[in-house]
Design brief:
This protein is an all-beta fold. Helices cover about 5% and strands about 50% of the residues. It contains one helix and 18 strands. The protein has one helix at about 140, and strands at about 5-10, 15-20, 25-30, 40, 45-50, 55-60, 75-80, 85-90, 95-100, 105-115, 120-125, 130-135, 150, 155-160, 160-165, 170-175, 175, 180. Strand 15 and strand 16 (about 170-175) form a beta hairpin. The two termini are about 30 Å apart.
């Protein structure tokens, strides 16, 4: 009865977290075999369970910016998968989106911009418990391949959003010409 999308299974396969537009939008969790869903985080997008299933990472931001990277759009959070108060990660960044868990469960990769400049948008890695964020340089590698185009200053950027971190590899989709792969 609601617009539900962006499903993510818990590592044990027992729960599904998803984005729903019901009641203003947010992240909900439900048993994989059905039952009553529970709101975990208002306004959340693209939920990701931690490898141990204890946390859900997500971001908040306006839907009008989903197809382009507007650095000021997006805040990144983690919340216990059982529900409780969320904790913002990297509030020092101008924008954070699409967090995904490292296999160690102690780091997250995200699309972010530390300031309002055109040069800061990239994939970054941050520790769950503080510390400095590390810029990966992925966007510099993507530009010659045609995966990243446009200007961060205007927000009209074809982005490369990370979706899964498996071992030493990151799965993502990117647009080249008229195709998304």
């Amino acid at each position: 009865s609601a617009d539900d999308r962006e499903p993510a299974f818990s590592p044990d396969g027992g729960k599904v977290a998803f984005r729903s537009e019901r009641d203003g939008g947010g992240i909900y969790v439900v048993s994989a075999i059905g039952g009553q869903e529970r709101l975990i985080a208002r306004e959340g997008r693209t939920p990701q369970f931690s490898p141990d299933g204890q946390w859900i990472a997500y971001w908040t931001g306006g839907s009008k910016s989903l197809d382009s990277f507007s650095p000021g759009i997006g805040k990144m959070y983690v919340v216990p998968s059982t529900g409780a108060s969320p904790r913002q990660l990297r509030p020092d960044f101008y924008g954070c989106r699409y967090p995904i868990w490292a296999p160690d469960g102690q780091h997250l990769l995200f699309l972010g911009a530390p300031g309002r400049s055109e040069t800061g948008g990239d994939w970054w890695v941050t520790q769950l418990e503080g510390g400095q964020a590390v810029q990966t340089g992925a966007y510099a590698a993507f530009v010659p391949l045609g995966f990243v185009t446009g200007s961060l200053r205007t927000g009209n950027v074809t982005t490369v959003d990370p979706s899964t971190w498996l071992g030493r590899h990151v799965v993502f989709s990117a647009r080249q010409g008229d195709a998304m792969n």
